[in-house]
Amino acid sequence: MIQAINSALDICMSRDPDVLVFGEDVGYFGGVFRCTAGLQKKYGKTRCFDTPISEGGMLGAAVGMGVYGLRPVAEIQFADYIYPAFDQLVSELARLRHRSAGEFHAPVTVRTPCGGGIFGGQTHSQSPEGVFTHVCGLKTVMPSNPFDAKGLLIAAIEDDDPVVFFEPKRIYNGPFDGHHDKPLQPWGKHPMGEVPEEHYRIELGRANVVREGADCTILCYGTMVHVALAGAEEAHVDAEVVDLRTLLPVDMETIEASVKKTGRCLILHEATKTSGYGAELLSLVQEHCFWHLEAPIQRVTGWDTPYPHAFEWHYFPGPARLAKALTRLMED
Amino acid sequence: MIQAINSALDICMSRDPDVLVFGEDVGYFGGVFRCTAGLQKKYGKTRCFDTPISEGGMLGAAVGMGVYGLRPVAEIQFADYIYPAFDQLVSELARLRHRSAGEFHAPVTVRTPCGGGIFGGQTHSQSPEGVFTHVCGLKTVMPSNPFDAKGLLIAAIEDDDPVVFFEPKRIYNGPFDGHHDKPLQPWGKHPMGEVPEEHYRIELGRANVVREGADCTILCYGTMVHVALAGAEEAHVDAEVVDLRTLLPVDMETIEASVKKTGRCLILHEATKTSGYGAELLSLVQEHCFWHLEAPIQRVTGWDTPYPHAFEWHYFPGPARLAKALTRLMED
Amino acid sequence: MDDAPQERLRLHIPEPKVRPGATPDFSDIEVPEAGILDRPPIDADDQTLHDFAFAMIRVLDEEHRAVGDWNPHLDADTLRRGLRYMLHTRLFDEAMLRCQRQGKTSFYMKCTGEEAVAVAQAMAHRPDDMFFPSYRQQGLLVARDWPLVDLMCQIFNNPKDRTRGRQLPVLYSARDANFFSISGNLGTQYPQAVGWAMASAYKHDSRIAAAWVGDGTTAEADFHHALTFATVYQAPVILNVVNNQWAISSYQGIAGGEQSTFASRAVGYGLPGLRVDGNDFLAVYGATQWACERARSNAGPTLIETFTYRAAAHSTSDDPSGYRPANEEQAWPLGDPIERLKQHLITLGEWDEERHEALTEELRAAVKADLKTAESYGTLGTLPDEPRSMFDDVFKELPWHLREQRDEMEKL
Amino acid sequence: MDDAPQERLRLHIPEPKVRPGATPDFSDIEVPEAGILDRPPIDADDQTLHDFAFAMIRVLDEEHRAVGDWNPHLDADTLRRGLRYMLHTRLFDEAMLRCQRQGKTSFYMKCTGEEAVAVAQAMAHRPDDMFFPSYRQQGLLVARDWPLVDLMCQIFNNPKDRTRGRQLPVLYSARDANFFSISGNLGTQYPQAVGWAMASAYKHDSRIAAAWVGDGTTAEADFHHALTFATVYQAPVILNVVNNQWAISSYQGIAGGEQSTFASRAVGYGLPGLRVDGNDFLAVYGATQWACERARSNAGPTLIETFTYRAAAHSTSDDPSGYRPANEEQAWPLGDPIERLKQHLITLGEWDEERHEALTEELRAAVKADLKTAESYGTLGTLPDEPRSMFDDVFKELPWHLREQRDEMEKL
Ligand SMILES: Cc1ncc(C[n+]2csc(CCOP(=O)(O)OP(=O)(O)O)c2C)c(N)n1
Ligand SMILES: Cc1ncc(C[n+]2csc(CCOP(=O)(O)OP(=O)(O)O)c2C)c(N)n1
Ligand SMILES: [Mg+2]
Ligand SMILES: [Mg+2]
């Protein structure tokens, strides 16, 4: 997935001289996860560079660059470190077009690795996507595989609205279905691991039904798509797995069609439960599909605690937990 | 309500020399909403003082004071300005006890006026409470009247966990049911406007059924409690109105009992809809009361736009909108 | 370990010397003689420049003459234009305050006593330089000949309001004047200006950026972010601190102004900080011109502190008599900027009381005429647009959920 | 308007002089002679103190003698203690790195080359002063005689881990050593230390606070917040910047270090900034002692920049050969802090190679013994506690929703 992201950045930079890429350690070194490797060398120091360790300054400057007419792509080293930039994101980037009645806008893309399962402890594992979906004016995206990552990132960069682009770091190097004791599969063996070299876009706001099924619908995104597939198999449930890809605006049509078909719905995410994005999904499904529901919608999520270090696998909503919930969902 | 808040602060300061009150303009001047009026004079400059315009610094310092052993009460002048302090709130204040396994904690109370209806435009009107309920480790409170405000604020200050205490500024000077064209009623005429002088606490985590009813349950808090009562009357619906008071931890027992009794539920808040706290409430009700629901749970909230200035009353979820939704709820 | 005596610690809380009821006291403000400072070359080294952060650049002397190295040597027409813009700004402010009192708008913020800052700075810049202002630089727009009717319409939130009723009065946006949308959140424009300037440098443009914050706002994170990014990337930007002594009810000591000057914040970033008499039109012009030259020649950013006094209330929601002595502005040792420039022109023989009177009348009439036009489109309470318009511009295109909400609103 | 030539703007991106493959080059680092600076009184006025922010306080000269006004005149026992702590820290780091390579822990961060900073600073403080460290000040705990077994147990996340498996290795918390819980978020401890110091002053206590950040972290908002609050309330706090030249792969120029020293950030806040040879145990001790005296006598806060070099990788997840020349630390002009103190003691006739050898052996054995003890409780993979414990301490008492979640987890 790292190469797919790198390729998306490369293509956007080569097609548009106004695309700038920056962040902590992204320049000469190429990023702590190597997503920007080679870009400084290829496009020069003024197009891909390091920033001071100041997430707020980085996004403040990005807004200004966007206002000038550039298309900045900023990297926040870990999603856990997006909070120092929260005011610039929420009060400025998200609001600018509206408050100036369209006079100004800043087409900034904020890339940031999120999620746990890499033994990173509470400050390298968070999934704060839900918060950004509450902020009107931001689009929120999270891919689950290299093919989507590239197409969605290109679409995000080319989009004239600001986009927060979450990259589940656990699947940077291969799909992960929650079986942490099994060896990691590289992306090469996965159908979505194949990434065309050329420019392509995956429209923001379109979900992907990664598995059709009749028994129930699982709504998920990012790493959890792989967990969903594994958990459904383990529970022997014919689940329809919907990979949302874009969280805001969400693809309600696809969700609605699926839930109306299956009559049962489960929502799976890694973020903490209370007021997480799952709550919005549950609400939307309830509002749109109430009369089709044969059982209560369920949420399987991270617990409402900080992401633990030693108890990572007790926290992570893996296939066993999902399978159990699916069984209950089908019994309800 | 301003006097009630002032009285709570006064009592806490008089009982405990470790209670310090500070924020922008709160010292000599007594706060832009006058909630801290007289406190500097009474308790001295080192107990109630102005801070630099640095919400992040203010809460960073508050954490340190709390760690020392004080009980700081910080005022963020408008809830819209809490974002520069977001990292200290979310990554530090909320996490400290957990990450240090109980070695350190900071019993900080953050007071902040929220909500619109005062013609304040998008940066003096926001209701960001939902975001804080997603942050494990913080308690979130919002009173709807002077009596509760005092009892809840005392409980918050005396609580050993950090509390974000939202004060709906539209009801500082009197209850407001959304009829902005009618003259403002002062609190004096309202039963909950009477505030005992002495120390009392309202336990955090306990909702209040402000109106019993049989037809449906309205879950609300802050200003919206008054709108709920007005809207129900206008719709001629015998609604049970639950004033949540504490959003986290929420009083699920009361909610569950009410919804199981009425079979119908509507959630009312001023914050924007998507991923607002209403989504969590809806999810909880759905999870706990699914088999008792006779109609889809409804949300009546602010639109997913920045709080407008000129169109304030088109944005504000007032009694007319509520009444219409209630009618639909009863028809479903 | 240290040898400090076993003394008890004590907490220091800064407090202004005088409070309501007492006599204004500015005896601790040092007002150096005009003209005594050299104007260094724009690429002078850091250490040479340090002194300017602690001194005060002044051009107009006690006899209203322009003296010293920092005198920008403006011709009489330019000076008269400056005078006109400042006066226009003041009369506009007065008219808008009256409108607020009359209920034509909900809110207003004056810049009385600070007119030289925005007007001289706007004139020292090129018209295509980009401004990132706070809410107290209406003079920038006046000096860029922006139609005041436009501002009034926003203040009244009427159908000609450029922000379509979305912003509070005074939070203008004027792209055609290269004037950035003002935020209600303090200080956020500071790193944005730096980013804009970085972009301009990246594109080998020649336009530079300037941003303004108040003394109180220097405490915000964005102040530090801006200075850090400005110095690291040597962005062509001018960062201005308008030190008008007050932040609502908090005096500048609460922002750390008693321990050092705001201009001196620049020192630690290796940037020049210029402290300027903010009520001296020529000093403000001269210092800004220097900083513009510097930025435009790739010599780097500058921090300018304009030392002035907020003669008016913070806003129409504020009453300063609650926290500072009455009429403190009259004791302000740096005088009034309009009066000082007027006297300078008179000293030069380029102005007189009659012409001043006539100019005042002319501008008063102009404001009145503009007001009449603006009012004809409506004042407070007139809706600026269809309510449905509030859903526009949240995103470039309306997503389904906003369309649904808009429909729901319209069905009410 | 300005008279700048119609030059095209260009964006400056700072870049270190050398990259992998090239020869280390520190020729631009000025190393002033030891002993040349006066030690000013702790209440000297701001302007007098400015110079210290740009100079470098040094005590150990080229002949390993302690010279000048800043010499803290420590007795030989104290010096030997300092040497022991530094050496102990280094050996501990080496052992832990080995443990990481052996899979006994997932992660580790060394402070090699920077041992003088934490050790001398801890020794210059009183034991009850409160420390708000970053992740690279393990020397503070060593110098406070904190049991290393305790640290190892956290590094291994075994059942004796004080943080109950909640934190990454090295993010210690040691309340009994007056050592604050280390955050994974950079810089947040800085304003917290100021708040703690304000509280101490408010309570008329005599304890002061100290906090540490790296050069890279100075760019964070919290750096500015801390300096602002410290100066406004004159908090009894020492704010330390450990300038080890690198922030992961970014050299200090990316934090603005090429434009000015980090110590000089203090100037603009009216605070003393001391720039110190961070590899000179005596200079670090002397400067810290001065700042402690100052804080403890209500004379205000101090910013100290310890100028040093991160000889090791950023962490076990990092490989510096990707961004800087190999063995750059050997070219570092300020040498190695352990070696320098050792030579000083030898020069004094208070130490020799044999004793040094013996000490090294003793400490190596001590670390080994501690390691054995710690390992006996378990290493990476041993669970530190019942999984249900992760629900504790989110709040003081478990609310219903966490109880439900805990039950759900246990039923799996
Ligand atoms: C982030 C933020 N915090 C607080 C406020 C409330 N507020 C508005 S103006 C003001 C005072 C600003 O003072 P200063 O920066 O000196 O500017 P001046 O009003 O004197 O021009 C405050 C505290 C705000 N608008 N934004
Ligand atoms: C807010 C935040 N942003 C980014 C990071 C990632 N990060 C961890 S250490 C580091 C470099 C810090 O460098 P410096 O402050 O110089 O300290 P040093 O490692 O040299 O001791 C970075 C960027 C973080 N932990 N927190
Ligand atoms: Mg001010
Ligand atoms: Mg460093």
Helix content range of the residues of chain A, please?
A: 25-40%
- Main pleated sheet of chain A: 7 strands, mixed
Given helix and strand content, the structural type of chain C is alpha/beta
CATH fold group of chain C? Rossmann fold
Mean of residue pLDDT values of chain A: 97
Bound molecules: thiamine diphosphate, magnesium ion
**Residues in helices of chain C, as a percent range:** 25-40%
- Main beta sheet of chain C: 5 strands, parallel
Q: What is the correct CATH architecture of the largest domain in chain A? A: 3-Layer(aba) Sandwich
Task: Tell me the CATH architecture of chain C.
Answer: 3-Layer(aba) Sandwich
Determine the mean pLDDT of chain C.
97
Q: Work out the radius of gyration of chain C.
A: 22 Å
List keywords for this structure.
heterotetramer, A: 332 residues, alpha/beta, Rossmann fold, 2 domains, 5-stranded mixed sheet, 12 helices, C: 412 residues, 5-stranded parallel sheet, two-stranded antiparallel sheet, 7 strands, 8% strand, binds thiamine diphosphate, binds magnesium ion
